[in-house]
Amino acid sequence: MKNLFFMLLVAAIFGGCVSSATSTAKTNKTADTSGGSSDVVVQKVDKDDVRDIIREEKMLAPYDASESELSFTAVGEGIAPLNTVSSAQALALAKRAAITDGYRQLASKLYGVKVNGKDTVKDAMLRSSTITAQVNGLIKNASIIDENFNQGLYRVNLELKIDADKWKELFAY
């Protein structure tokens, strides 16, 4: 489906503007020649051709020929709970929370955040207001580049490196 949409987009870009008289003449010509030759040309487009066009036209994302890999970073923070059996358990739980928060931060950078809001008004007065935010995504191969634990707060710096072409294929929408 994406390929079809992209082919139509490329065809519209390269087709240019056609005057209404020309398009009317073509319509009449195809209508008059029932069963004859058609003016429609169908051409298959290869993914590599599309990538070359994206690269040449600098579409979808800024492209630097020397940069073949994109890097995304995020900072995750986790707090050690007070009701733990030992300090080692508190440290492990804080680290797990920090890594999870870091993954959430990366997912929000890559996939975006869905925000829902709801207000209830009665008698021209705001009764309640609710805002929820949700992130859905899959993060693979992120690496921890820095971590520290200070006064019950565990902080983790995560980095995700993605090939630029792969990023454009997955996230350019």
Automatic annotation (TrEMBL):
Keywords, sorted A to Z: Lipoprotein, Signal
Domain of life: Bacteria
InterPro entries: FlgP, FlgT_N_sf
Key word NADP present: no
Signal peptide (UniProt feature, chain positions): 1-25
Protein name per Swiss-Prot or TrEMBL: Lipoprotein required for motility
Organism in which the protein naturally occurs: Campylobacter vulpis
